[in-house]
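From: lab user (bench 3)
To: helpdesk
Subject: output format question, protein + 2-oxoglutaric acid

Hello, I'm new to running complex predictions and I'm not sure whether the block I got back is the full result or only part of it. Here's what I submitted:
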Amino acid sequence: MKVTTAEWETGELTPESLLAAQLNLKIKGYVIIEDVFDEAQLTALKARFNELLNAYVEKTDPNRGASRYGMPLPFESPFASTTLVANPIILQVIRSILGEDIICSFFASDTALSGSQYQQAHSDVAPLFPEDDISLPPFCYVVNIPLVDFRPDNGPTEIWPYGTHLVGDPRVVPIPDFTRIQELRESALGRFTEEEMTPQQVITPAGSVVIRDIRMWHRGTPNRSQDPRPMMAMVYNRPWYNHGVVEIAGDQFEILPSEVKQVFRKAVLR
Ligand SMILES: O=C(O)CCC(=O)C(=O)O
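Helpdesk reply: Thanks, we reran it on our side. This is the complete output you should expect:
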């Protein structure tokens, strides 16, 4: 969806746009907001990201499948800008569903390097109440920020929208295990997701933001280009749920604007 200049200026979607975002999230499981970051901000993000990625790849084995890295990001410039971590429009959308009090509990990235292969379809979390086959209201959203254009050839994320986020039966929710990708792709559930359901590629330009229900099934796809396909990943949730821990330097936390402090108040200060 596109945000109007007036909405960016006021930092608030109109009731009609907000409803459109909510319908996308609740029914499809995701929404894409276009043109959130401009070229100058993207250039700064990409430059620092590439430095960190090169150093990380040098000393770390792929951890999300072959040629694929989940890399934590430091909570510092240029990543920790207010427009990025507490963007008024993104938070308005998320808060309108999860409630005013939300926490960011994950600050990291996913990169498919040249030569990466398919992951298995997976939800990022197991059902909250595995004793029951119960479909719960949303409690947690992932915010993905593509740092390059996502194209069919460079390993765009693939998603299974329209309902996989609402499946509560733990026997049929695929949980990731990136050490057994092929085995899980060949399991009954793996074959079902790939042969009987149609995934959708997330084709979207750098500078857009993908908000997705953390439960929606998705996977990384092969990067057949020569260049890395990096994406930032943040998680916002209701305050009683924690997806992880964000670490922030104590002196850095002190100078954050109050609206950022509020969302990161459960961060571990070091
Ligand atoms: O990088 C992607 O497109 C998706 C990666 C992913 O889902 C994961 O590693 O859990």
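A quick orientation on your result: The pocket of 2-oxoglutaric acid is lined by residues 64, 70, 110, 112, 119, 157, 176, 218-220, 231 (CB under 6 Å). Let us know if anything else is unclear.
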